[in-house]
Design goal:
Blueprint (H helix, E strand, L loop, with lengths): L2 E5 L2 E4 L4 E8 L8 E6 L6 E6 L6 E3 L7 E6 L4 E6 L8 E10 L2 E5 L3 E6 L1
Parallel strand pairs: 2-11
Antiparallel strand pairs: 1-3, 3-8, 4-5, 4-9, 5-6, 7-8, 9-10, 9-11
Length: 118
């Protein structure tokens, strides 16, 4: 399995930026895709962004397209989520996940809180 640790969350004003990081261990990092999800209070966890094992393909939820950028550094076993033009509705706990294929997960991080004030 894969162990994941997120960092970089915090409190930011609307229009600001944050960069989340997710450090992975336990399995060859470059062998699996990575994703970011988020869960707002009272809502279900939702997909935010994903990146292929090589970094060559990326996917985004419509709600963050053009504002968020997912990237990875396989030499550092780390995936990033650069979040720009943040909105109050982006407030949530953000989780990274290692993808095992066909929707399965090799592991989840513990989550990092992002709060966007208006």
């Amino acid at each position: 399995q894969v162990q994941l640790v997120e960092s970089g969350g915090g409190l930011v004003q609307a229009g600001g930026s944050l960069r989340l990081s997710c450090a992975a261990s336990g399995r060859t990092f470059s062998s699996y895709d990575m994703s970011w999800y988020r869960q707002a209070p009272g809502k279900e966890r939702e997909f935010v962004a994903a990146i292929s094992w090589s970094g060559g393909s990326t996917y985004y939820a419509d709600s963050v397209k053009g504002r968020f950028t997912i990237s990875r550094d396989n030499a550092k076993n780390t995936v990033y989520l650069q979040m720009n033009s943040l909105k109050p509705e982006d407030t949530a706990i953000y989780y990274c996940a290692a993808e095992g294929g066909l929707g399965s997960k090799l592991g989840w991080g513990q989550g990092t809180q992002v709060t966007v004030s208006s």
